[in-house]
């Protein structure tokens, strides 16, 4: 019995080979059955295949300078989401221009680029059920003056030009941004030890 439990935990911790499915790398929800589950014939309780959705979260230069990275990561972990990509970088201007291409005509665009390249950014990809929608709620309104207490922006910032964190605003946006910021090799497919409780609902 003990050996059986141990084997199961080891199986669940094991990394899975990087999948090249567009959806998995991009943030689109993808229906997959985990390798461990497939190997063991195990299915989620509802017999619905595991649905994974991904989003891009980035702690902006002001958040890094103010040592908020840990607290922001903690909120996503606490919520039950899974970290599948993480890196710190000085963001090149061409990446920022593409990332914010929809805002190119805005008067604040040059200042936005200047601020986003003023220091290191911590970029992350988080995975989980409806993570795009949930993370937008967790991050809060674009303008911190209107963000609710309890949200990242509502708790840590007061001005729209220094709002601490970025979160993709739609599935399509998440797909585009993840492909822009991360290569496939930088994203990790792995099973949490509590996979069946948090990821296979
Ligand atoms: P969000 O970051 O909530 O998705 P957005 O995509 O509309 O918001 O804008 C991207 C960033 O641009 C935002 O996080 C901060 C900056 N920004 C938006 N509106 C601004 C404004 N009126 N003045 C200065 N910066 C602004
Ligand atoms: Mg946006």
Task: List the ions, cofactors and other small molecules found in this model.
Answer: 2'-deoxyadenosine-5'-diphosphate, magnesium ion
What class, by secondary structure content? alpha+beta
Tell me the span between the first and last alpha carbons.
26 Å
Give the full name of the CATH homologous superfamily of the domain at 50-183: Nucleoside diphosphate kinase-like domain
Structure report:
The structure is a single chain. The protein is an alpha+beta fold and 201 residues long. It has eleven helices and six strands. 2'-deoxyadenosine-5'-diphosphate binds at residues 103, 108, 112, 142, 160-161, 163, 166, 169. 2'-deoxyadenosine-5'-diphosphate (DAT) is lined by residues 103, 108, 112, 142, 160-161, 163, 166, 169.
Q: What are the SSEs and their pairings?
A:
Layout: H1 2-13, H2 22-26, E1 30-32, H3 35-40, E2 50-52, E3 54-59, H4 61-65, H5 69-79, E4 82-89, H6 93-99, H7 109-116, E5 121-127, H8 131-139, H9 152-156, E6 165-167, H10 171-181, H11 195-198
Antiparallel strand pairs: 1-2, 3-5, 3-6, 4-5
This protein binds 2'-deoxyadenosine-5'-diphosphate and magnesium ion.
